[in-house]
Design a protein that fits this description.
By secondary structure, the chain is an all-alpha fold. It has a domain of 43 residues. It is built from four helices and no strands. The longest helix is centred in the middle third of the chain and has 13 residues. It is globular, with a radius of gyration of 14 Å. It starts with 8 loop residues before the first helix and ends in a 5-residue tail after the last helix. The model has no long low-confidence stretch (mean pLDDT 83).
């Protein structure tokens, strides 16, 4: 029987939040979901990842309930 995959989100959300509370912020869950999904898309470098995120911005924001 295959072991069930463990979600990294509970571990990643334990990272302290140093962001400025006066700025618009997004939940760590949403940010990690974007990063991990983007990495699974197979970018060759950080610019390719940024391009992928830009290309899929609208559906990602809708799916993760992020403000535009």
């Amino acid at each position: 029987m295959k072991p069930k995959p463990i979600s990294p989100l509970p571990f990643l959300t334990q990272i302290p939040d140093w962001r400025d509370p006066n700025r618009i912020t997004y939940s760590w869950d949403a940010l990690w979901a974007l990063i991990l999904t983007g990495l699974l898309s197979g970018p060759e470098n950080i610019l390719a990842l940024a391009s992928w995120l830009s290309m899929y911005r609208e559906p990602l924001c809708q799916r993760l309930s992020l403000p535009g």
